[in-house]
Amino acid sequence: MADSSRPRRSDATKAAILTAAREQFAQQGYAAATIRAIAASARIDPALVMRYFGNKERLFAAAAEFDLRVPDLSGLERSAIGPALVEHFLERWEGDETLMALLRAAFTNESAAEQLRALFATQILPVIVQLSRAPRAVAAARAGLIATQILGLAACRYILKLPPVMRLPRAEIVRRVGATIHSYLFEE
Question: Nearest CA to 65 among 109, 119, 107, 110?
Fold first, then answer.
């Protein structure tokens, strides 16, 4: 009978892979980090990385920590908050390949999807509660609707690269999607 108090070998291997992946992604960036380099750093065969995580995006989603860096919007006029949130997220999506990797992975990997849900629960929901001054349940519904807009925009513009969305000028996206975000935040 196995001793359940001792960690299993697979747990130690996964932990070593995650540690090596965090180091490689931090040093090399998402694009330059390779499964082979991560495996070498963890002193294991690359096939084990694939066995436990499936692909680089899933490994990344499991290893990375994300900060949406949502700015303090409390000093803005109410009408400027929606557009400011859209502008912020456009900057984040365009300036951080790691968020794109997480979004792509979230569509096919439950761990990545959970990480994305946690980002919104811990980094967006508190902002929406503060800005809307709505009860938490109402603010949660509003944050969910905002997520549909932000994630849908990112998926269509940066992953699917839908031509009509790609051609839209940034200012128009900020204005139009910002108005929708504003309505989610403040309209009853």
Answer: 119
